[in-house]
Specification:
Elements: E1 3-7, E2 11-15, H1 18-33, H2 42-53, H3 56-59, H4 61-69, H5 73-97, H6 103-111, H7 114-146, H8 152-167, H9 171-201, H10 211-214, H11 224-238, H12 244-247, H13 255-284
């Protein structure tokens, strides 16, 4: 409640504390961020997060990480996954208190100042521009495997326009499209882990064994802790996209329950997907 101070004998002027001013400013900022349709379901939010975090970091960037750390890349991604989980638990708390599409830009503006909010928003925008560009180029590179005579830029441009089209749909349609596209990624990784584990253990075939983990020159950690930490950087970049769930909070049904549950569930799944998939890779193929 406001505190009041008596002036002379006839007038009462309200005195507002700094906390109350911050609360009023926060409410005004959130009203400005409001107006979006809240049509995203929990399953769609989870898949949007998974689809955002599972990308070239696992399918292409893992080669760079393995080159840095060797088989110890498993530890590198475990460390990166732990850091992502810590961030996720903190972010889920903020997303529940302030469910808005502005997400961490809004939080910076409310709790620091408008300049901090602007910097955070434009920094995230630049990061997404770089990430989307990298994904489009990677998609073009992949397509040349099946169509070697076509230029990379043509495929990249085609995927970029496809992405733009889907993002311009209504939020309900966008959530449905994201759900099924992300599900393709998840199924592919699960099948990869199952088939890879079967080959390593010799289920239905000659076992590959675990020789590639420790039997090559340098052992499990051929480049020492320095290589492990270099691969952690790649791992952190690979987990980029996990924060997108908080960005969806302004368009999510019942964000108070959906956002924390989705973030925690997704953090665990990403950890398992990345660590298990990379474990299969460095066990199946010599890291050299």
């Amino acid at each position: 409640m406001f505190a009041y101070r008596r002036v002379h004998h006839d007038y009462v002027i309200p005195q507002i504390s700094a906390t109350e001013i911050s609360t009023l400013n926060g409410s005004a900022i959130l009203r400005r961020e409001a107006g979006l349709h809240k049509d995203l379901k929990r399953s769609q939010v989870i898949m949007i997060g998974l689809g955002g975090a599972i990308g070239t970091g696992l399918f292409m960037g893992s080669g760079l990480a393995i080159g840095y750390a060797g088989p110890a890349v498993i530890l590198s991604f475990a460390i990166a996954g732990f850091a992502a989980a810590v961030m996720v638990f903190s972010l889920s708390e903020m997303a529940v208190v302030h469910p808005s599409a502005g997400s961490f830009g809004t939080y910076a503006e409310i709790y620091l100042n408008p300049w901090a909010g602007t910097v955070v928003r434009y920094t995230y925008w630049m990061a997404q521009v770089i990430a989307v560009g990298a994904e489009a180029v990677a998609a073009g590179v992949y397509m040349t495997y099946w169509f070697p005579g076509t230029p990379v830029w043509l495929w990249s441009l085609a995927f970029a326009f496809t992405l733009l089209y889907f993002n311009s749909r209504s939020v309900n349609h966008f959530g449905t499209i994201e759900y099924w596209f992300a599900l393709i990624k998840v199924i592919a990784i699960v099948v990869f882990i199952i088939i890879g584990a079967a080959a390593i253990l010799g289920i239905g075939t000659e076992p590959i064994g675990f020789h590639n983990l420790t039997g090559l020159p340098g052992g499990f950690m051929p480049k020492g802790f320095g290589g492990v930490w270099m691969a952690v950087i790649v791992g952190v970049l690979s987990f980029n996209g996990i924060e997108v769930i908080a960005v969806t909070s302004g368009e999510t049904k019942d964000p108070v329950r959906t956002i924390p549950a989705a973030l925690r569930t997704m953090a665990l799944r990403l950890f398992l997907f990345y660590v298990l998939a990379l474990g299969i890779v460095v066990t199946f193929v010599p890291w050299t």
